[in-house]
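Researcher: Sequence recovery benchmark, item below. Answer with residues only.
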């Protein structure tokens, strides 16, 4: 059914294309046609460059500031309890390696 509908649509489009006379292309007038495109493009280019410079300066200022380091948490006795070894050895994958 979908194939027959598509075939019918293609036939009708082809028939319309044969009977339609090509109209001469005329310039369409939009509301933005009154603007000077070159001036508008230059304005947005300047705004873009000013935004890039501003963002770069703000990023450099924020990254150059020091940041607060929190003290190490106390070594509670109930943390990191190991009742049996890991299959790959006595140390965890993401822990400091101890000499055994």
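Model:
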């Amino acid at each position: 059914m979908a194939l027959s509908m598509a075939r019918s649509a293609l036939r009708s489009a082809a028939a319309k294309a044969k009977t339609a006379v090509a109209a001469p292309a005329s310039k369409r007038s939009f509301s933005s046609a009154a603007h000077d495109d070159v001036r508008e493009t230059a304005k947005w280019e300047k705004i873009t460059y000013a935004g890039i410079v501003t963002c770069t300066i703000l990023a450099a200022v924020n990254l150059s500031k020091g940041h607060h380091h929190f003290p190490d948490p106390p070594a509670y006795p109930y943390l990191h309890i190991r009742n049996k070894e890991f299959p790959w050895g006595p140390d965890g994958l993401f822990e400091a390696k101890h000499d055994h």
